[in-house]
Amino acid sequence: MTRIPEKDRDILEQAMYLPMLLTILEMDRILFDKGSFKLKQPYLELIDETITAVQYDLKKTKDAMRKGQMKVEEITWDEAFTMFLFIYKGYEEKHNYFNPRIRNRVQELMEFYLYKRFK
């Protein structure tokens, strides 16, 4: 059983997912920049604005973690699972995440930041 309340666990998970999303967006920006699009500037601006929004939310997440005495660290990973260490007010908990679930959650976040947040 976990000692971490659901609200704080959500913050810790955001601290896991948002850096992954930033990495993907930065890599995609490079691909768009090198791509042979006729009008690449609108795509680059969309990605840049999305990166800015994700960075802002990541900063808020890190501030909440600092305030709540929380940390998250990746411990191990293999083809199927990634293990993270959650440190919450001095307590340590290890959590295993199924890699396809991580990918799906990052994809959901990407969809949210790219267009669903405007609805």
TrEMBL record:
Instruction: Please name the InterPro entries in this protein's record.
Output: YhjD-like
Among Pfam families, the record links this protein to:
YhjD
Name this protein carries in UniProt: YhjD
